[in-house]
Inverse folding.
């Protein structure tokens, strides 16, 4: 083969949210694969809030991406050549392939073979990928909602949030979405099944929560952890459960940002706040993916994607997430 | 009967920690009991951090004590007269009798009959009372320690903390106590069975925690929730559990005090922080009290009491707790 691999590299280390000029593109020949390897031609690259942590120098749950290295990312693509006994040409796989058109793999960075041939492959990066299983396990295992509970979701129209809201609805909960534009608030109630949506930029959040959650909040799926969450925590019902999934509203991590202390609210409401990392549930992903795929087929889980066209859109995409400019799962389509 | 009842009344409402001059003493005749009532002559009055919340105007889990009313408190005493079919003269009872020498009761404010005649009655206000069951359920149900876990306790020599440390030791944990004087640190290791004790006022807390908890902290029983806890939370092991029992280090509640945000620590450690209110476990108190009494009899739970003499010591006693001037369960002995 004689292919060119267009790649997006980390060119300098951001201190906060990475922006377009922290990245550079290059083109290199695609290396030949050797025994035990296969070549993936990527179709979609994922853009996730966690990528901000991956390029940060501060300790995290993965080592930082090195300067000059291909930006780490999830992706989905088709195997175009294989010398690996378990992976065949033509199979679709999702995994940590990076922001590049071609990735050589020995299978170690593969999440799974994407076998839902009846569904779009991009879903493997969203509701049938890490976002979906994050929503599923974070809600069911950390928030533990009961039918009839009031479930509040921050970044309600985002890749994870939109799945949380819809799964909670399927489980019989009353769902309230918090989002950052009138357009997304309409999306929440009209397309994503929320019982109520609050546009925190234009409404009085405290007043809106009081109206939308008259019996208090039983579950809070928190993708924000900033001023929005500071208000949410003052409306907890007794025994509330908060899942900390992401901290997209905390734009600086070092030094640790200050905010209102949560201890009295947790104490008085006998509530719990719990962080979770979805990779800890890896062994159970198939059980969630199967359920999620069936809900998609039954029309209970709406497709909710925001697709950018072409590799050059990737470098500026992480910042879009932190500014709330995406509507649904943010992806880069490259092939 | 013609008895005088000396009482301590709330005379003005504090905004923070109540001090001696927020109270006034008076003497009134003991009322006659009627059918269905009995009269308790109190022996010990309890002094608890929660009393600060009871006199505060801010909403809490109990209505505020009214100005001019007898100060709400737990106590233990002997029934000296009864016209109630289930309570007999001579029986010892613990309950919410208030800071007064004589309390009329219909049984509604009784916690339990104190039937461990072989043990001091004062223990019914400490390790065999709410403090003991708080330590027991907070540790076993909220912190959920496994044998071998590292358990850190703030206000380690206090009424609750000292019981937590000893119960964790009984359960096979490594225990580290944080306390505020050299004298109490010695008490922790010499009398209360802690594997290590840290005097946060004189040692570098972060460095001391690193040395005492080389594998991180699995459980944190938090009675403080101020700067001490801000440091502790940076040393969590993966999957750590934090029980919020009290917030003695937060001297102002309204407006909500600010401090370092806990969200990133909870997320990266996949940790949980949970408030609990011991009265939610009321139906299970007998199971805990029986275990605790047996541990006292076996010498595994040390008596750890700080007893003030006479009613006039009560008004200034709550502040002593918030200044860390007590060593163990703080009680007022009145008879």
């Amino acid at each position: 083969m004689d292919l060119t691999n267009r790649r997006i590299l980390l060119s300098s280390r951001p201190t906060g949210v990475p922006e377009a000029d922290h990245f550079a593109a290059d083109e290199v020949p695609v290396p030949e694969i050797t025994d035990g390897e296969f070549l993936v031609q990527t179709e979609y690259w994922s853009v996730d809030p966690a990528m901000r942590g991956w390029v940060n120098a501060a300790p995290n749950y993965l080592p930082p991406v090195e300067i000059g290295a291909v930006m780490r990312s999830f992706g989905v693509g088709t195997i175009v050549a294989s010398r690996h006994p378990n992976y065949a040409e033509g199979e679709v796989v999702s995994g940590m392939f990076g922001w590049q058109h071609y990735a050589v793999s020995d299978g170690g960075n593969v999440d799974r073979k994407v076998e839902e041939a009846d569904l779009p492959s991009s879903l493997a990066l969203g509701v049938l990928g890490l976002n979906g299983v994050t929503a599923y396990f974070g809600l069911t295992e950390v928030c533990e909602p009961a039918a009839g509970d009031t479930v509040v979701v921050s970044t309600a129209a985002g890749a994870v949030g939109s799945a949380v809201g819809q799964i909670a609805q399927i489980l019989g909960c009353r769902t309230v979405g918090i989002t950052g534009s009138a357009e997304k608030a309409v999306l929440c109630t009209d397309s994503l099944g929320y019982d109520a949506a609050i546009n925190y930029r234009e409404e009085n959040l405290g007043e809106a929560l009081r109206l939308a959650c008259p019996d208090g909040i039983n579950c809070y799926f928190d993708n924000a952890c900033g001023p929005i969450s500071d208000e949410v925590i003052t409306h907890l019902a007794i025994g509330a459960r908060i899942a900390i999934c992401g901290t997209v509203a905390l734009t600086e991590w070092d030094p640790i940002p200050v905010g209102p202390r949560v201890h009295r609210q947790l104490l008085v409401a006998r509530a719990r706040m719990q962080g979770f990392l979805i990779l800890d549930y890896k062994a159970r992903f198939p059980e969630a993916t199967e359920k999620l795929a069936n809900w998609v087929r039954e029309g209970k889980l709406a497709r909710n994607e925001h697709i950018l066209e072409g590799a050059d859109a990737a470098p500026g995409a992480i910042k879009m997430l932190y500014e709330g400019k995406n509507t649904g799962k943010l992806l880069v389509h490259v092939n």
In short: Chain B has a mean pLDDT of 94. Chain B touches chain A at residues 59-61, 222, 225, 229, 244-247, 250, 253, 256-277, 280 (CB under 8 Å). DSSP finds nine helices and 16 strands in chain B.
